[in-house]
Amino acid sequence: MTTELLQVKNLKQYFPIKGGLLGRKINDVKAVDDISFSIKAGETLSIVGESGCGKSTTGRAILRLDEPTAGEIHFQGDDLLSLNKKEMRKKRKDLQIIFQDPYASINPRQTVRQVLNEAMEIQNVLPKEQRYDRMIELLETVGLGPDKLDRFPHEFSGGQRQRIGIARALAVDPKLIICDESVSALDVSIQAQVLNLLKKLQREFDLTYLFISHDLGVVRHISDRVVVMYLGKIVEIGDKKSLFDNPKHPYTKTLLSAIPVPDPKRKKDQIILKGDVPSPIDPPTGCRFHTRCPFATERCVTEVPELRNTTGMKNGHESACHYIEEIESGEMKPKY
Ligand code: SF4
Which of 79, 129, 174, 301 has the most other CB atoms within 10 Å of its CB? Predict the structure, then answer.
């Protein structure tokens, strides 16, 4: 039986905006606004969406790098939000993160040996005398030779630095790794190598991934299930095949239409949305997508759509739109 490793319930992450002479709170940036999802042990759940949709904020909130405003986060049965700082620091042994830019997240003055040793030291992993062998093993696991141990981050290429970031995450033997745009800064060929490495490591070490990316091509390659976010809300969630083959939400369809097709003879109709993503300080009422949605009606302005399954199958594929059936049947036509 597959068990849920992580459960996120009604998570909110607001960032206060202060102003006036007294510096009082005048508003909030509602970066994540009441989202719920879970991740099963051993799977890869991706969160995808445009910049500012709240995907990276969600990852940081799970690790409590930013303190969530409201909601629940359960990991292996523990309520993460009830842990004190010391308990949370211990818990981070099981919950690691790989950032987009390893150069920014790895101390440039530390050699690889120091980076890996520090990770093990903080979490009290292995006695000191056994760590050298573990470091060599980790470097080999991520495809770097032992000769790299005493090199500095600037001596590596972007792809190699990301491998060091992965080795650092693996050093403490985690259960869940949050990959936050972890391959976005890499060339396409290097991206593929790092993605394949992540998949191999998942099989070998029974890892679970929360993969955060704006790139649907990458998400398609690595995911088991996908969450689509727009302006702090989940608009669609489902297993990869169902969501990519049969997207329901107008926003997901727009994102998918923008994926380049490798065959130049095959033309694809890209859906172009009007306007920009509105501000999360004052998000649109009702369906947050209504200011850009070609199907929006008065109801969409006032009524928040709930996530619901319209596939006719018990496959966990849900989307938040009032008019999925009408759009699919052709009863509703796009207004632009
Ligand atoms: Fe568009 Fe309305 Fe559906 Fe939102 S609820 S996606 S605005 S049709």
Answer: 174
